[in-house]
Structure formats: C-alpha cells, structure tokens
Amino acid sequence: MFPKERQKGEEPIKFYQMMDGNILRLPFVRRGRVCIILYYSLLFLIQTIKFLYKFEWLYFVQYGFSYFFSFIILAYIVFLPIGAHTVRSFMEEVRWWKTDSAGEAVHKMIKRKSFQSIIIMVINTSLISVTMMAFAIPQKVDKNLFYEIALFEDMFPKWAPVLTTIHQIQAFFVRLFGLVVSFGQFLYPYYNSKFQLYMLLYFIKNINEKSEIDQWRIEQRLLFCLRSYITLSKATRKMLKKIEVVTLVYQALILVWSISLASYVLLFQDDVLQQNFRFASLSICSLFMLVILFQLGQDTEDSVTKVFETLVSIEWYNWNESNKIIYLMFLVSALRPFRIQFSENFSLNYNMAGQLLRCAASVVLVVYQLNLM
C-alpha cells in the first residue's frame, strides 16, 4: 500500500509539460523573445520621453491604459524563464509517486481533477484569445487608445497603416503566449502538489491498516508520511520564496494598470462606449483568472488544515511512546500555516478577494455618482 519513493525529477502529471521551459529553450523562441523585449523597450523609452515632453495629465491618462498593459505583458515575457526555472527546480526536488499508488478511488479523483484543470486551461486560453483578438481588430478610436499607433502616425505617417497592422498581429501572439504560459506555470506545480497531497492523505488515513499493533510498521509509515509532507511543504515554500520579488512586481504593475484603466473609463467615456465588446471581454477574462487564482490560493491554505484533521482522526492511543512522539512532531508540522503571500498583509485567498471586491464596488459607485453630477 505504501509505495517506494520514486527518483527525483519524475512527474506524475504530464499535461503541462510544455509550461516547464522546454518551449522557452527552443532557439527561435529565445531569439524571438529577445527581439520582443528590445522592441517594446524602445517603444516604452520613446513614449516615456513623450510623456515627459508633453507633461499633460490628460495625455498620460489617455495612453496610460495601453502603456501599462504593454508593460505587464513585457514583464511576463521577461520573467517567463525565471518562472520556468523555478517550476522545474520544484519538480526535480520533490519525489513523486505514481498516480495509482493510493488505490483506485484516489486515482479516479486525480484523473477527474486533471481533466478539470485542462478544462480550466482551455477556457482561460479561449477567453484570452477572444480578448486579444478584440483589441487587435482595428477601430477608429485605436489612435486614441494605443500609444504605439499614435507613435507610428507621428513618426512614420506614410508607413503607419502597415506598421500598425504588423504591430497588432505580433501583439496578439505575444500577449496570448505571455498570459497563457504564465497562467499555466502557476497551475502546473499546483496540480502536481495537489495530487501528491491526495495520495498523502490516503496514506495517513491508513497508517493503522492491517498493522495489528505492529509498532515497527506504524513507525515506518509515520516516518514515511512525515518525510513526504515536510519535503513537499519545504519545496513549495522554497519555490514561492524564489518568485516573491516577481510577484511583488506583478502586483505593483497590475495595481497601476487598474488605476489607469479606471481613469481612462472615467475621462474618455465616449471612446469606451465605442469599445463595449473589448472592455466586456477584458472584464470577463480578468474576472475568470482572478476567481481561479483566489480559489487555488484558498485551497492551498485549506490543504494544511486537511492534513491536520486527518492526523487527528487517527487512532493513536495504542502506539508506543516513540511513535507518539513522531505523531506529535507531525501534528506540530501540520499546524504551521501555509499561504501564497504577496506581502505580510496580503495573501491569495477569499479574504483578499473580498477586499478587492469592496474596492471595486467603491470605484464603480464613485464613477456612477460622478456621471450623475
């Protein structure tokens, strides 16, 4: 029933293997990534100079939305190799079991959750594709929204239509690739860890099974479960520690972009009304990603509680003193809280989701009241 630990680097789930950096190590992808970084860096430099030269807050608000959105996409492209390396290191550090190691019932649950994760990825990719396509299809107001198009018309008026078309095509694929791969890099270690936890909970529940008060066998099973839990939690915390700075950068960029989006919607309502589908698809896509991320963050917190509750349900009364000490060590380890944190005060959970919802409701209320004035 209790499997032997497999060799490091073996993964029980393969459906996100494309997210672990194999694609990013391809020569043409690496060269394309460097070209994209240089291209957007040049655009940002020119646009920043124009912001400083004009020094008009209305001009900044007008193009701030697309300016910071492109900045977020560029950050995704820059940090993709870091995320891939971090995920790959995590997968190599943990010893993975076969998905059928914990019996047929757990194996079926893992297969069901695996299929569910694929559905989530497909829906997310579809929503991102529709949103990026909506912003790529030309509209009359584009020159008032996209700073890149305004730059082309100012600097290369004769070539502006051609340059705009080329830019919109590459922007569609760059944004799609960056957002989809980043989201997949988050789901990949999460689901592998979740499946590992399912099997670990099964092993903990069955520590006493067929033992006939065999203290030595109970000790080996306890140590097996304790080592597995410590290894998984240690590797997960180490992975999150590595991406802590990157997460803070994303958090700051998304916050600034959200403020610029709210300002644009408030001050350029005529342009917004001509882009209902764009902003509706953007809202639906963003909401879906946030819901999934908050759900995964809350589930990560609850996983430690599940381990503790399973441990408490074990009949340990007839164990010897040595096994009781190991059991107590396991309980103490399972009491340590585990959160996906952005900072000391902000964690990815339902509480943070509620705070963001209240802030969003306040912004909508302010915009509504200003429209009535």
TrEMBL record:
Keywords: Cell membrane, Membrane, Olfaction, Receptor, Sensory transduction, Transducer, Transmembrane, Transmembrane helix. It is a multi-pass membrane protein. It is found in: Cell membrane. GO terms for cellular component: plasma membrane. GO terms for biological process: signal transduction. Belongs to the insect chemoreceptor superfamily. Heteromeric odorant receptor channel (TC 1.A.69) family. This is Odorant receptor. The lineage of its organism: Eukaryota, Metazoa, Ecdysozoa, Arthropoda, Hexapoda.
